[in-house]
Design goal:
49% of the residues lie in helices and 8% in strands. A two-stranded antiparallel ribbon has the order 1-2. Helix 1 packs parallel to helix 7.
Amino acid sequence: MTNKELITQIGAAAVKYYPTYKILPSMTIAQAILESNWGKSGLAKDCHNYFGMKWTSTCGTDYKEYSTQEQRTDKTWYTVKAKFRKYANVAQGIKGYYDFLNYSRYKNLKGVTDYRESCFLIKENGWATDVSYTTKLTKLIKDNDLWKYDLQAIYPKPPTGTINPDSSFLSIIWLQHNLNICLAGVKGFVSLVVDGDYGAKTRAALLLYWKQLDWKPGTGWGVGANTKNALVASTNN
């Protein structure tokens, strides 16, 4: 399985399961990449366990034992042997991940739409001992544009209401992403970094977009319904 195929497969499942479990797809994909080393680990290949889920006697699956590294709070590493869940196929392994997140310790992940928060919480909840776990997950999301799967799951239709610098992280990501699509090739436009920060560059891009349509933009900090509808129409052309 190539890196792209792994992202596509896990991403499609994460979007499908989102309405039921409300777990952010970008974090799910990043975990699969990190925990399985892009699907190349023995645990992924032999057990279809892409998320490093350990086995317990009550989890209802078979298991396989592996040596694994854990990290202490002083950042030193040590090796232990542990039993990990074994699944019959990839589909069962992915479903097993969502069943695992149904444990009460992970309930604070449900409904979170900011991948930075999700990646922080899952580390704090005890998923991994790696002290850099949150940083590694968020870097994978940024480097591979995994937030696009969050948009698929949460905004199959555009955000409602006005988008401004105080709006939700994901709605600003939606705006930046669609401005990049709509303004591609326009003279003077430099693609935005899609980072959820509605600052001067995002404002300038929006003003440029309005200029292309000969609109009167006012302050340029609010994105109303007409703007959103036009952005959507532009992306569908």
